[in-house]
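Why should sequence recovery work at all? Because a backbone constrains its sequence more than one might expect. Tight turns favour small or flexible residues, buried strands favour hydrophobic ones, and helices have their own preferences. The token representation captures these environments compactly. In the example below, the structure is given first.
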């Protein structure tokens, strides 16, 4: 290997490491924000549920609980997904160490287009995975989650 080739490879490794660290930092910030959102949602839930319970409004109490549970589960799923992404970034190495970069050019990413797994999801639904790799689905707006693909 020539000096210039070695220098270029070192530069690519440093660039890759810097990019991975920046992505990890961004994901950690997003996790902190999601955790703060969960705390705020739970606090607001406590205030709202108290009023519903004092009024003995069972339907409102159940609706508040279900809505809050769905929102919290969606945020928990988001946090789990981001933690899995951080773990994946930590396990990637430089060129020749199992990363997605090659020793000649820029990083190699996934192919264009949507991933081939599963049918298209209805509007608003997203596909995610637990840290263990189990696939689940969530609706961005309603916070609803499901282990099975929505129809």
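From this structural description, the recovered sequence reads:
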């Amino acid at each position: 290997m020539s000096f210039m080739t070695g220098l270029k490879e070192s530069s690519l490794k440093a660039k890759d490491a810097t990019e991975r660290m920046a992505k990890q930092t961004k994901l950690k910030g997003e996790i902190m924000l999601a955790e703060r959102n969960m705390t705020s949602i739970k606090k607001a839930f406590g205030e709202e549920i108290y009023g519903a319970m004092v009024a003995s409004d069972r339907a409102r109490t159940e609706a508040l609980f279900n809505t809050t549970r769905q929102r919290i589960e969606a945020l928990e799923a988001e946090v789990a997904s981001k933690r899995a992404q951080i773990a994946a970034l930590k396990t990637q190495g430089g060129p020749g160490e199992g990363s997605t970069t090659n020793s000649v050019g820029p990083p190699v990413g996934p192919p264009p287009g949507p991933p081939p797994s599963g049918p298209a999801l209805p509007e608003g639904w997203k596909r995610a995975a637990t840290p263990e790799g189990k696939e689940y689905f969530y609706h961005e707006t309603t916070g609803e989650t499901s282990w099975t693909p929505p129809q």
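A few observations help interpret the result. Helices lie at 3-54, 58-91.
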